[in-house]
């Protein structure tokens, strides 16, 4: 394991969590959007993660030998949540159908806020890991003095 591998792993986590917070913010901002460019209500977005792993022999052997789980994480895409839209009776709404129902986005603000807190805590954990690694490196450099 190289000197900066743990910092690189935490950096990938920081990038993934920042993107996750951006997606959650977009979901919250569009929680009442009933008309999008595609014509229907806004559909909640979900990030898709994938473990980063190098496939060269040395890395695979080293990971197996040291019981390492990988080289970090990356967001490989963002998919739409296909859960049903929320139906609300509001005959005065401009997007109401003939029966007076409006289709609202499938965004639950409480769920999004819980996800935001979770992403924020994961981001903080990655920052703490980077700072701890940096501190250990500084202490190791001071040994030689």
Mean pLDDT, nearest integer?
A: 89
What would the principal axes of the Cα set say about the shape?
A: elongated
Helicity range: 40-55%
Strand content: 15-25%
What is the N-to-C succession of helices and strands?
HEHEEEH
Number of strands: 4
How would you sum up the major sheet?
2 strands, antiparallel
Secondary-structure-based class equals: alpha+beta
Strand order of the largest sheet: 1-2
How would you describe the overall organization of this protein?
There is one protein chain. Helix 1 runs antiparallel to helix 3 (109-143). The chain has a domain at 5-32 and 42-82 and 109-127. The protein contains three helices and four strands; from the N terminus they run H-E-H-E-E-E-H. The strands form two sheets. The chain has a two-stranded antiparallel sheet. A two-stranded antiparallel sheet has the order 3-4. The radius of gyration is 22 Å and the shape is elongated. It is α+β, with helices and mostly antiparallel strands and 145 residues long.
Structure in a nutshell:
The chain has three helices and four strands, in the order αβαβββα. It is of the alpha+beta class and 145 residues long. The longest helix is centred in the last third of the chain and has 35 residues, at 109-143.
Sequence-ordered SSE layout with sheet pairings:
Blueprint: H1 5-29, E1 45-51, H2 57-66, E2 73-80, E3 86-89, E4 101-104, H3 109-143
Antiparallel strand pairs: 1-2, 3-4
């Amino acid at each position: 394991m190289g000197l900066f591998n743990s910092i690189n792993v935490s950096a990938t986590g920081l990038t993934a969590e920042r993107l996750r917070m951006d997606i959650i913010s977009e979901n919250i901002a569009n929680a009442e959007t009933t008309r999008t460019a595609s014509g229907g209500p806004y559909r909640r977005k979900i990030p898709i993660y994938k473990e980063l792993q190098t496939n060269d022999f040395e890395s695979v052997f080293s990971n197996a030998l040291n019981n390492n789980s990988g080289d970090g994480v990356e967001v490989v895409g963002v998919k739409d949540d296909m859960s049903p839209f929320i139906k609300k009776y509001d005959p005065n709404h401009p997007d109401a159908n003939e029966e007076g129902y409006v289709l609202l986005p499938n965004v639950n603000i409480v769920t999004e806020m819980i996800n935001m807190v979770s992403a924020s805590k994961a981001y903080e954990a990655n920052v703490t890991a980077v700072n701890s690694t940096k501190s250990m490196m500084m202490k190791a450099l001071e040994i030689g003095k």
